[in-house]
Every structure is written in C-alpha cells, then in structure tokens.
Design brief:
Elements: H1 3-10, E1 22-27, H2 31-34, H3 45-60, E2 65-70, H4 82-85, E3 113-116, H5 127-133, E4 138-144, H6 146-159, E5 163-167, E6 171-172, H7 176-189, E7 192-194, H8 196-206
Parallel strand pairs: 1-2, 1-4, 2-3, 4-5, 4-6, 5-7
Amino acid sequence: MSQQQVYDQAGFGRPVPRGQRPAIVVVDFSYGFTDPQYPTAADMSGPIAATRRLTDAARAAGMPVIYTTIAFHPGEVDRLPWLKKATGMAALTEGSRLVRIDAATGIQPGDPVVVKKGASAFFGSTLAALLTGAGVDTVVVTGATTSGCVRATVVDAVQSGFTVLVPADCCADRAQAPHDASLYDIGQKYGDVTDSDDILAWLAGLG
C-alpha cells in the first residue's frame, strides 16, 4: 500500500469547506527571516511577492490582513527554553531591524502586527481575538518558515475553530525538504494546500 493510500484509508486529506469571511495572516516576513545578511534569514523574495498579491487584493476588498513578528525583550533571552534550542533566534530583539516587517510585503499603517514569543502566531498573542472580532471564519496562512511558525500557526488556527488555507507559493523555508514535508503534513491533517492564483480567484468571487 502506498503512502497516499495509507492516508486515504485513514480518512486524511479531505478538502475543507471555505467560508465567506477570510483573513490573510502573514507569518514572520520580518527582516530577520527575509534579509540574507542575517544568519536566521533566507531569500524569500518569491513568496513575499506572491503573498503581496493576496494582501493587496484582500485589503482592497476590506478583508483583514494581519502580520506577525517574533520579538524578544533582552531580559527574556536567557530564560526561554526555545532560545536554548534555537540559539540564533535570540537575535530577534525588540526594537531591532530584524523584527520589523519587510517593506517588500507592502504592509500598510492600518495592518495589525501581532508580536509573538514562540512558533505559533496564536500562542500568548492577540491573534485569535483579532480574527474573532472581525468575524473571520477562514484563515489564509502565508509566511515563514513553513516547517516552523507557519505549520505551528496552521495547527493552532484549526484548533481555534478556523478553516485554514495555505498557498504553497506564499510560504518560505530555509531548506526544501522541511518545506515540502510540512506542506504535505498540513494538507493531510489541518488545511488545504493550494496556490496564490486559487486564493486570488476565490477572494475575487467573494468580493
């Protein structure tokens, strides 16, 4: 039996019903992830451009666009267990350029920026309240990294009661293998993995 047959037999990989009130959540397209001069970053220009197509369209239609960034207070750096495992992340300190959203994303002054301390954009943050307050039923998750903060955000989005869509060309990682594996896992268990053209067409239909 093939891998796909095993998943099919177990009841995974079914398509999710799309709602009527979407939001775009852009995970951690901050300079610490997008500017290759920093050790924690990689070239994410392609996924940023694809994501911007979605955020521009959503914003024009009055749909919420929310960005996230990781930012640590210097006093937290020596105390958080995650930073003992992923030591490079300790450079993402409050007030530094590394935690600012990359201007190439097209972020606007009215777009909320959720500051987080861990992988999931939901954990210990205001994201769920922002989405619920806006009446959102479907979350389109984009950003970086696919295998880390995107995947964690997707899992928590489903667990928070939202339908999840993930355009693969709007996600970036430091290596191809974890990117591909995470998208496969997301598509089997948590949300529909699609692309930016599909999301754009869907948004236009809602508009």
